[in-house]
Every structure is written in C-alpha cells, then in structure tokens.
Amino acid sequence: LHRGKSLLIGEASVLNKGTFTVLNNAIIIDAAGHTALFENQGRLEFVSEFSTDKDLDFRLESTAPGELVVDGVNLNVKRPGTHQDAAFVTTRSSDLIRFTAPQFISGASTFTGPGTIEIGSEITISAGQITSSLGTAGGFSRLKLQTGGTIDGPGVLINTSAMAWGGGKIAGNVTHQGGELEISDQLGAPELAGGTLTNERTVRQLGDLLISDGGRIVNQAGATYEIAGGKIVHADGSERGTLVLNDATLRGEGRI
Length: 256
Prior knowledge:
The protein has strands spanning 6-9, 13-16, 19-23, 27-30, 37-40, 43-56, 59-63, 67-77, 81-84, 87-90, 96-99, 103-106, 108-113, 116-119, 122-125, 129-134, 143-145, 150-152, 156-159, 163-165, 169-170, 173-176, 180-183, 191-193, 196-199, 202-205, 209-212, 216-219, 224-227, 232-234, 243-245, 249-252. The chain is mostly beta strands. The termini are far apart. The strands form three sheets. The chain has a 19-stranded parallel β-sheet that branches.
C-alpha cells in the first residue's frame, strides 16, 4: 500500500498470505464500524523512512506464520485481536509496538527485534506461550508492562531479556529468564494479582509491589531478588506477601 493511499475494509475481510506493506503515510481504514477484519497468515509490515506514529485501527487475526512487523514506525494497536503462533517484530531500536486494546494470544508466539513492546491493555495468553527476546540497545528494557496493562491467562510469558514493570498487573504467568526485571511504582502501581512471577535470573524492586489474590513470586535456584526500594505489600494492607526462595538470593534494604 503506497504512500498517500488508503485501503477501506468494509463488511468483508482481507486475507493476507504473502507480504502486505503499508508504506509511510498510507493507512488501512475500518469502514465497517469496528467490525473490519484483516486475517494475516503472512507478513503485515508497517514501514516508514522516518520515525512515524501509526494506529492499527482494525481487527487483526494472525495465524502461523503470521508476522506483524514495524520498521521505522511507532504502532499503536487500538483494536482487539486474536493471534496464534504469531510473531511481533521490531526492526530498529527506535521502533515501538504498543498494545492499547485487549489481545488474545496462543500457541508459540514471539516478541523479537531491537525495538520496544509496551503492554498497556490486557494480554490474555489463552494457551501455550509468548517468548520475548527483545534486544537491550542503549541499555534500556525493551519489554514494558505499564499502567492499564495486564498479563493474564493460563499460558506463560517467557522473557529472555530485560523487562520494565512500571505499573499494571500480572494475573497470569511470567517467567523471567534473562537480563534484569525492574519493578518500579513511579508511573503506576504494579500488582501481582493472583499471578505467578517465576524469577530465574535477576529482579530488582525499586518501589512498592502489591500482592493480591494469592499472587506468588517464585525464585529459582541461583536467581537474585533485590529490594532496592519500597516494600512488598499484601492486599489487606499488611507488609507481607508470598515470596518463595529456592536456594536463591534475597538482598536489599526494602521491606517484605
């Protein structure tokens, strides 16, 4: 879809099995009143020569080997979507995929590339797993769970690089395997809301963390949990939570 052009999706749907490129200021428009559907079984890419903000303002369903790719684009995913065995790919360190509408993800899905993925709405991992292996260019955490975001469902998010948890909830399962997971409350109130955070590497807590509905932090052998600031607070207001140490290291000056 070339620059300056538009694609209007009406009551019918678009099925992509090849490569569909949205270039520069070209746009896809939902002309069906929130029901337009783009079925992606190939590669849907948003490409810009310069850093550009774009909205994905239509319903996207991805099935293997479906890829959503950004290249020179900050993409705001504004509509609910369903994805199975899908890949979300950033091409440059300046790229961004931001989820601001609920997404249902299953199978063996992935977050990859040197850019950033922000979770600002509910991500339900209904089965299987998401493996996040985003880069750490510039020393920044590239996977971010923010205020308004929730990781939920019986599946698991496996993070193999650095991650920033600055708000929002973990109500499902997150396994942290690489880099440092930093927990802070500067922009919101992070909450372990009935979910399980399994730490296999390093977690550094800089602010208060609320634990509710039986949430658990499980530190595997050899892992480190550092409370550099704040405290772990139980939902009833007491300064207690569920922290399991399996031959792991707990250090810091905060409170449990």
